[in-house]
Each structure stands twice: as structure tokens, then as C-alpha cells.
Amino acid sequence: MLSITSAPWPWYVAGPVIGLFVPALLIVGNRVFGVSSNLRHVCSAVLPGKLDYFRYDWKRIGLWNLLFAAGILAGGFLASHWGASQNVAISPQTRIDLAKLGIHDFSGLAPREVFTWSALLTLKGFISVVLGGFLVGFGTAYAGGCTSGHAISGLADFQLPSLIAVVGFFAGGLLATYFILPLIL
Amino acid sequence: MSTERPKDQKAAGQAALLSYLLLGVCFGFTLTKSEVLSWFRIQEMFRFQSPRMYEIIASAVVVAAASVALVRWVALKSISGEPISIPPKSLGRGIRYAVGGTIFGLGWALTGACPGPLFALVGNGVTVMIVAIGSALAGTWLYGLLRPRLPH
Lengths: 185, 152
Hints:
The structure holds 2 protein chains of 2 kinds.
Chain A: H1 11-29, H2 37-46, H3 58-81, H4 92-101, H5 123-143, H6 147-156, H7 160-184
Chain B: H1 4-33, H2 39-46, H3 52-73, H4 95-111, H5 115-123, H6 129-146
Helix pairs in contact in B: 1-5, 5-6
């Protein structure tokens, strides 16, 4: 018997549940599922400057989404404290490939050799967290959406711009995986 | 009666805001239990060494598409009373989607997380991702600054 607190959920539970957030948000308040807009809302609230892109009523447009994001954080906390935590059982081949690149700690959700405060000022930590985060913010703003807004909401609505964006997501991801990670890890 | 109305609307608005928070909690829980927030899973996906992430994304899109089609077919209104609609994104020259998408993809593989998972990871105790969120804010702000000069 599958327990909702046991990890990982099989794909045929995880995928459909993720998909259901699209109709849930539409039904609650005609909101389109997408997380990256929150980065824009925070900029608009904190440091709009004289930039047109940030000059709008962020409370009216984005308060719902900021609450959604705050919920995501709380949900992650809840999930990590509820049910047995376990390591991510990735394929043996991925483990071998990553070990060749110098990843040896496979415990937790992300390798501790890279994603800890003490690793932040190493080359791999800085590029992964600081540069990676920067590219996530710049790229999603430029593309007008991320995995949730384009890959889930946009594709579900058969929007061509979202398909182009998703092809871009994978092009960028493959470039980083095969050409950048081998240099920095 | 008419004096009651603004108050009712305000209460309804607050209830809706609370629902977004709760839906967010459910989403953060889902991201964690499905492991899609894990750097390891993202690497496994980009190395094509397990169908898992593709199965998750594909089934999410199918369920979302079927739900959106159903919502349209029955012309459902939202609880807030508006007709439900997903605004179409304008294609333009498509450059923003191809180039912006690729830039995001680079960041996705480097951090091992897209924006939703960044928040969920902080909740999971990977607190260094607060820095990644700060960087992402800086990236978004720089886009706002450069926007008039970038091809879209």
C-alpha cells in the first residue's frame, strides 16, 4: 500500500498530481500556474526603480502567487519532516557518471560537495548556486516563464511559444550538463 | 443587503488567498515526495538515464491539458466568479522563448532546480538555495533593466 508520506511517489502519481495544480488554480481564482513570476513580483515590490517592467500593482497581480511560493517553502519543510527521508535512488549509470566527475556524496536531495554554505565560495559551489541562480532568474524573465508556466501550463494549452521555450530549456540543460559541469565539478 | 456586499467580497478574497497558500503547501509537498526538486534527478534526466522525469512531465502535461479542455468544454467559472481563461502568449519573433529558454535551461542544470523547487529546497533544509533565489532576483532585475534593448 502506497503511503503519501513515503518517498518517492511513483511517476504515475507524481505527474498527474502536478498536472492537477493547473485546473486547481484556474478554478480557485482563474490563475495560471507558474512560479517564476514571483521573482518579478519581488523586484516590483522591493526595487522597481524606474523600470517599466517592474512598475505595476504587484499586490493585485502577484500576491496570490507570492503566497503560493511561501506555501511551496512550507510544503517542502513539512515533507522533509513527515515520513522517512531517504536518498534519491538515481540510476546506477548516473551514479557512475557523476562519480567520475567527482561527486561522491549521494545522500540528500543535492550533492553536499556543491550545495552547502561552506562550498559556496568554491568554484563549483559559486557557479552552481550563484551563477546558476542568476541564469534561472534572467532566463525565466526573458522567456516569460519556467518549467511550471511554460512546460506544464503552456504545453497543456498547446501554446507554440511554450513549446519553443521548452526546447530551449533542454538545449540549455544539455549544454550545461555535458560542457559546463565537467569543467567545474 | 448592499452594505454587506463589500465585506462578503473581502472575506471571499481572503479565503481565496488562503487557498493559494494551502495549494502552495501541497505543491511543495508534491515536489519533495516526487523528487523532481533533486539535483540528482535532474542530472539523471539530462543524461537520459531514466524515463522517470519524462514520465512525470508528460503525465503532468496530459492531465493538465485534459483538465483545461474539460474546464473550457463546460465553460466553468472560477469560484471567484470569473470566466476561466488562459491568456495566450504572443509569439512575436520567438527569440525571447528560444534564447531566454536556453539561458534558463543552463541555470536549471547548474542549480539542479527550477523556481518552484528552489523554494521547496529551502524548506527541505538546503538553505544555501536562499543565495540562488537572491541571484535569481538579481537576474530578473537585470532583465528588467536590459529589456528595452533585448530582441524579443
